[in-house]
Amino acid sequence: MDDLSYILNQLGEHREDYLNAVAPPLFQSSNFAFPDVATMRTELQRELEVPFYTRGYNPTVAILRSKLAALDGAEDALVFSSGTAAIAAAIMSVVKAGDHVVCVQKPYSWTNKLLNKYLVQYGVTTTMADGTDTAQISAAINEQTKLIYLESPNSITFELQDLEAVARLAKEKGITTICDNSYCTPLLQQPIRMGIDMTVQSATKYLNGHSDVVAGVVCGSKERIMRMFNAEFMTLGAIISPHDAWMMLRGLRTLPLRMERSAASAFELAKRLEGHPAVATVYHPFLPGHPQHELAKRQMKSGSGLLSIALKSERVEDTETFCNNLHHFLLATSWGGYESLVYPLCVLSESPNYASPVLRLNLVRLYVGLEDVDALWEDLKAALDKIA
Questions:
Q1: For residue 261, what are the contacts with CB-CB under 8 A and spacing of at least 6?
Q2: Helix, strand or coil, per DSSP, at residue 230
Q3: Opening angle at CA 351, ends 278 and 358, nearest 5
Q4: pLDDT tens column, 212-257
């Protein structure tokens, strides 16, 4: 990665163009005017590169794009109004009717729905493969396979894929690879530098980091990003607003500090939770007992702020008792902000959009924010003691 401090604090910020403002300006404008028809005609041919209409290019969003691409070691990036929009655009930019996708098991729920419910209507088929074994990904490939979709780790039970091995396999067969890197962010893992073609992230999470913006990002080569811009991005119009981009630029300033604190506290709590009598299993890729611990150490710098626990009790009532007695963990979805969160998988059981037969209902995901780790531990311990 290029110098991290330079990327976060200087890259793309041409302050001499903005009255030497220290903070990047917010260009809250949908339109940009031109002095004459000839100039307008010329600039329209460069709609991703110059101000014309904010759906295509906005100066505030452009600063954010440059930083996100550099963080990922990519040539360019597009920013969307949600992580789901970014995932959908990236996948749809690769496949067409008759094509086949290999996707890892237990991906983000809306990725699963896009591949196995929505795109099926348009003639795209998907095989779900155990991504912990590259041989199983290879076995799922057929003559129509155009895409291998990865999520390493996923955000519940933290299965990983060997990104370098999958990238080699895909390149040998002329198949595009996409990796959802939301768990790690580019600070902890850079799939593009390991040979993956494109990364997607929910920028709602760590990249913004303050639980006040919903956004997504796709990073890749200039050729892939331009192709996506001219098709899925401009056609579907799921753009981030200039104000939200400005908020994300603010959030990026503290990304390394937030990630370091959140990751360290999560790992400390994971180690302590392993010894509690009410806990059957702790899921964290950097615990020695994780089945892919060595792979995690090889391709990630550390874990992030997420961990999950499986309670010994299979009773939903006990899961609810545990969660309802937490005081420093908010009952909420998402993650990556400053506040600690608890997300019991049993809340999915009756939802038509999220119900999953794969995930056990005694699973509880914890996101560890920036609070004092000892206070968080006392909170967890007191709640667990009620069901031990």
A1: 370
A2: helix
A3: 55
A4: 999 999 999 999 999 999 999 999 999 999 999 999 999 999 999 9
